Amino acid sequence: MTRRVSCRVCGGKVIEIVDFGRMPLANAFIREQDFAKEKFFRLAAGVCEKCSIFQLLEQPQPSAMFHSDYPFFTAGSERMREHFQRLADETKGFLTSRSAVLEIGCNDGTLLENFHRAGFRCFGVDPSSNTLERALARGLFGRACFFNSKTADEIYADQGLFDLVLSANCFCHIPDLGDVLDGVARVLSPQGVLVTEDPYLGEVFRQTSYDQIYDEHVFLFSVTSMANLLAVKDFEIFDLEPQWTHGGSMRFYIARKGARPVSSKVREFLKREEQAGFKREEIYRAFAAACERSRAGLRECLEDFKRKDKPVYGYGATSKSTTVLNYAGIGPDLIKAVFDTTPEKQGKFTPGTHIPILPYAKFIDLCPEAVVLFAWNHAQEILKKEEAFRARGGKWIFYIPEAHVE
Ligand code: TYD
Ligand code: ZN
Fold it and tell me: Which is the most buried residue in 26, 242, 293, 380, by most CB within 10 A?
């Protein structure tokens, strides 16, 4: 693997901003017998001088990341299910009774099912066959493959045009986005709408949520960079809406250039980003410095608990936690175990740092005193669910935007 120095989108020069060092794949939860076989890459990210896209400098092969054992299932979170129900309600207006809906990266079909239940023809595409199987089990149609211009041609031949194409937390994973947009152009009806949602770079900066940077997130979009990316393929953002999901995301409403009136919100956001300096280097450098402070603070906090002989656990074996644990050098000496509700992760160990992952039930049995909230993007849902933990004196440790105990 070579380090990228030219932009994946426009070929411009990418300026290196952060280097988190040696890193395993974020979702490569590992069995003890496989420790010796673990693979690493260097996690570093930078910004393109020309189109302002924030991107990884090096990315492992997509097939190593999205495969038949992909351990992430959307339906695992109650609030995510509600969020996708709302997304469906807010986009049905683009459809007529004869419309069909395509989802790129449909995972277990949680989002698409809302359209399916409402009577629309739906088609889901996902490269991970295990998650797609769950979508098919819900009665959805779909195909286990990467969506690109070639598979788009085949899908078009088989399914025809779609009035709505959806992609939630998926575009940020795709290195060759240009080819995906070519694919969208082939399957989207002339007035059709593409709706995407991905973590928003502005929020990552605001909260120093550097754990959004991991192997699967090859891009983190600003409105500026998304607009640049689309312009090349004759698409444009005609509306947008910030979302609470994944610690702060942006929903983009996209259509062919000139096909729909552009909301003033789009222009306002572009102006706001221009004023904040998204086209200059300083804001990125400030973020890099904030990442350093954040990791040092978390280590200090955990070492303090250790000195006092108070064991600390983790809540949620998230992909994001892989970046935090490896970047900050946190292993089982500082965090005894991580609780997680996903059966596929339980009994395994965190990638690179080898902290055991225990079933959620152990959180109740062990009655820990202090727990790092790695699934901080679900804080509202989790803190409510775990009111009893706090009531009996349990402490939450947060590291976003900086380490603190509550
Ligand atoms: P997710 O939010 O998808 O984060 P990432 O994209 O960084 O992996 O992952 C949530 C993880 O946290 C998932 O493994 C399930 C787990 N989880 C719990 O254990 N309990 C909970 O209450 C919630 C909401 C999630
Ligand atoms: Zn570029």
Answer: 26
